[in-house]
Amino acid sequence: MSLKFKTKTLAGMAALAIAGGAAALTGTAANAATAHCGIYCATMASQSYGTGQVIATTATGGTLLAPGYNPEEDFVPLAVGTVGQLAQAGKIPSSLAATYANEVVYEFSVAPYGALTDECLGISSPTAGASVVVQQCGAPLTGQPAPSWEAQQGTLWIGVHRDASGDYEPFVNVEASASAALVLTASSANGPLTINWMSLSSGYSGTSVASDQMWESLIGIYGQAQPWPTPTGNEPPFSGL
């Protein structure tokens, strides 16, 4: 099973970008990325619905769709820093640092055919059940004014690797989660994406997050994918900017 996002790291994202090493190649295919988006794009799939349902954007917002060479499924993940770094800089609520500390914060830039835009996956409102929408990113592109995280935190997502299960992990929305975790949630196959309270269950193996809130990501074009190394934010550097 896998969650399909297309993602790129923004080179020189500044002082808060995270360095990392190379990830090992795997034989698993990233079925959604267009060739134009290349090695910078990652495909992401829900643990509930598997590789046949990947994240995409439509006129109404974020959704799950069948994978293909579809520019609506092209995203670039921008690692903008750790929760602790951003909280210390006053860019996100300090309450998040106590909970998520060294987890990496991302923006998912919409990048049809690999063309990075100033639009990202965000939320319609910071409330449970709110829809995932496309909105202006908080992090700047080259030549743009300083970041506006204080005003736009809805496009910031925390990859909570400590809650990972195998290759799957939840993504907490920053704007909606100052006091409790609201996470990226799959509503149904071919259905819209929302944010909702993190759902936990206990079993013999310990506490786990609900499968419709767990996402697996692979980076690269069809047939040339590798795991997206979310723990350190070390996606391949994007040299196009």
Describe the fold and architecture.
- This protein has 241 residues and is mostly beta strands.
- The chain has a single domain, classed as Trefoil (Acidic Fibroblast Growth Factor, subunit A) (Trefoil).
- Helix content is 5%, strand content 32%.
- It is built from two helices and 18 strands.
- It has helices spanning 83-88, 94-100, and strands at 9-10, 42-46, 54-58, 61-65, 75-82, 104-110, 119-123, 132-136, 157-159, 168-169, 171-173, 182-186, 193-197, 200-203, 206-209, 215-219, 226-227, 237-238.
- The strands form seven sheets. Strands 2, 10, 16 and 17 form a four-stranded antiparallel sheet that branches. The protein has a four-stranded antiparallel sheet with strand order 5-6-9-11. It has a two-stranded parallel sheet with strand order 1-18.
- The radius of gyration is 16 Å and the shape is globular.
- Mean pLDDT is 75; it is low at 1-32 and 237-241.
User: Which regions have little confidence, pLDDT < 50, spanning 5+ residues?
Assistant: 1-32, 237-241
- The CATH topology is given as Trefoil (Acidic Fibroblast Growth Factor, subunit A)
Overall mean pLDDT stands at: 75
Percent range of helical residues: under 10%
Any idea what the radius of gyration is? Answer: 16 Å
**What gross morphology would you assign?**
globular
Helix-strand pattern: EEEEEHHEEEEEEEEEEEEE
CA(first)-CA(last) distance: 33 Å
Strand percentage lies at 25-35%
Helix count?
Answer: 2
Number of E strands: 18
SS-based class: mainly beta
How many domains in all?
A: 1
Top CATH class: Mainly Beta
Largest sheet: 4 strands, antiparallel
Instruction: Quickly give the CATH architecture.
Output: Trefoil
